[in-house]
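Problem 12. The chain below contains 340 residues. Write out its predicted structure in token notation.
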Amino acid sequence: MKGSSAAKCSVCGGEAVYYSPLTRQHLCEKHFASYFRGRVELVVDRYGMLGRVSRTVVVAASGGKDSATVAEVLAGIASRRGLRLLLVHVDVGVPVFSEASRRSVLELASRLGASAAILSLEEALGAAVHELARRARRPVCSVCGLVKRYMINAACLAAGESVVFTGHNMDDLATYVLKNFIMQDLPAIRKLVPVTEPIDGMAAGRARPLYETPEREVELYAKLRGIPFTGEECSFKPHSTLDETIRRAISVIEEEKPGTILSMMRRLAQSARQYPESRYPLKPCRHCGALSSRGECSLCRLTRRVLGEPLGPRVKEYVEVVVSRALGGCGASGAPSSSH
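Solution.
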């Protein structure tokens, strides 16, 4: 929300670009940037996100504004704390959209001095996401989410880390909370916390630095800072969904009662363990060792049905090679990889 030309920064008296209903301050570009970074870093520290990192801060970089902003803020924090930054991007092969996303991630990595692991679904499986979805007779978004989660998880583990940082902002997460409550998927709500735990080497945890940051602040920060991101929209993105209806409701709530959603998310961070756990026992996939509830992970099940064999092992090997190259030929231990 841009300030009017008459509004002055509450800190320095300069021209304001944003009004924070949280602090009741008008902020100029400089002090908004400080306010934004400070709040994100506070969340990172409050929930011990970087305490889980051994050497490499792994960011799931989609090419959009949210993950690009997370990467930009984390780059500064990581540099001060002697950590390196790895951007992991999954190119799912959607014409125009995937090309724009890939370019944005590479430009961002160059600007931040970060490593980038670009994972191509077509290189890994020989098919783009919409082709896999057509053969599986499933929605493209469903298959896209499945393969991205698998490959990003594999990349994080290949880098020797147990947590991956994502760009989910407060509005995203609040939408998921309310949607899952409406659908009564209560175990899913349990996972919508600032940091989730890794699972026995089968799955990396998730860290969400934008847990308390609304989308409007992320968008303004990214634009003011000139952070590279794509505004290209995926041609398969559905419209008129329940998610969009909930997001509109969240906007109305925040407009009329500022701070309500932030309060909800902070309370959830404290109370999430009261929600039930999934009733399905978790076990390693018999093909690739990834997390599964039935002994076969979602990717191996999909590829077995669509491509004739479970290809999790092949995808993991491909990911390990790409990550090793991105990190300068070093494996998870930080020593030179034997595959190069």
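Discussion. The domain at 47-326 is CATH 3.40.50.620 (Rossmann fold). Students who got a different answer should revisit the alignment rule from Section 12.3.
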